[in-house]
Amino acid sequence: MTMKQHIVKILSIKHIAHDVLQVITEKPENYNFTPGQATHIAINNPDWKDKANPFTFTSIPEDDFLEFSIKIYPEHKGLTNEMLKLHKADELILHNVFGAISYKGEGVFIAGGAGVTPFISILRDLHKKNEIGNNILIFANKKKVDIMLEKEFTDLLGENFINILSDEKTEGYPNGQITEDFLKAYVTETTKHVYVCGPPPMMEAIEKQLSNLHVSKTAITVEAF
Ligand SMILES: Cc1cc2nc3c(=O)[nH]c(=O)nc-3n(C[C@H](O)[C@H](O)[C@H](O)COP(=O)(O)OP(=O)(O)OC[C@H]3O[C@@H](n4cnc5c(N)ncnc54)[C@H](O)[C@@H]3O)c2cc1C
Fold first, then answer.
1. 53, 112, 137, 151: which has the fewest C-beta neighbours closer than 10 Å?
2. Which atom of ligand 1 is least distant from the CA of 72?
3. With 70 as the cut, is the pLDDT of residue 222 above it?
4. Which of 24, 49, 55, 58 to mutate to test the pocket of ligand 1 (most atoms within 8 A of CB)?
5. Is the pTM of this model over 0.90?
6. Does residue 203 have its Cβ closer than 6 Å to ligand 1?
7. Whose CA is nearest to atom 9 of ligand 1?
8. Ligand 1, atom 6: closest residue by C-alpha
């Protein structure tokens, strides 16, 4: 299968956390996605055009631009580090739209670090439709400075926005890893939907915890980052 490529210009690029870039680009014509989906992105220059990695749309489908929220790993010296050099009017190459996570109904979203990106689009979309309801977001990060869009999530979800920090003790924020005990305050046998996105070790641990809490497998939607 040949992958269709779309060349788009960057309209704006800025940090939204110390290691997260928000990149806004043009939107190709007839390029549609549902909240939670992603595409492979490469940088349109001779050295980098063939190195495409997956990133999630954090805009909503009605927007006439595309937005991405990209965690940068300078130490990998790879694609995300290279993105630090990008400016307005530079070009990216986008590929096909794909993705495993989509909204199926009210429930609990559990994210680790950049794993929150599918939930950004889903929650913004629900807010736009006035359907945020009683959805809960549990967001695990290392430190408070790592929490992306903390203010927006607080505004969207109020008390249903739950943070947990593994590497920092800060007043008002639970400290540690997500455990079964932590989860059971938010997830019960009657929870209809649980959405989990984060690094593979976290996903494995949480799937086990959910099973111990008698959440049925069919209620769980996952995507590994
Ligand atoms: C469906 C999907 C959607 C995604 N959406 C997003 C998103 O919206 N936002 C986001 O920030 N991320 C997202 N990710 C994750 C994102 O794709 C990766 O974090 C990113 O591509 C990593 O790029 P890199 O800079 O490490 O570059 P790469 O060029 O991939 O890696 C450079 C080098 O680093 C090495 N390396 C890789 N991992 C490690 C590691 N853990 N430790 C040490 N060295 C390592 C590699 O071997 C390689 O040689 C998504 C992932 C998936 C699967």
1. 151
2. 25
3. yes
4. 55
5. yes
6. no
7. 70
8. 55
Q: Which residues lie below 8 Å from residue 75, measured CB to CB, with a gap of 6+?
A: none
Half-sphere exposure of 60 (CA within 13 A, CB side): 11
Q: What residue's CA is closest to ligand 1, atom 33?
A: 76
pLDDT confidence bin for 1, thresholds 50/70/90: very low
Average pLDDT of the chain, as a whole number: 96
Q: Is the CB of 50 under 6 A from ligand 1?
A: no
**What is the per-residue pLDDT for 80?**
98
Token pair, residue 73, equals 């790993």
Quote the ligand 1 centre to 20 CA distance (angstroms): 13
The CB of 100 under 6 Å from ligand 1? The reply is: no
State mean pLDDT over 163-191. 95
pLDDT band at residue 3, thresholds of 50, 70 and 90?
low
Q: Among residues of the chain, what percentage have pLDDT more than 70? A: 99
What is the reported pLDDT for 118?
Answer: 98
> What's the rounded mean pLDDT across residues 164-183?
96
Q: Can you give 89-104 as a three-state secondary structure string?
A: CCEEEEEEEECCCCCC
C-alpha angle 41-44-45 in degrees, rounded to nearest 5: 135
Closest among 89, 117, 107 to 21, alpha carbons compared: 117
Q: Which residues sit opposite 69 in a β-bridge?
A: 22
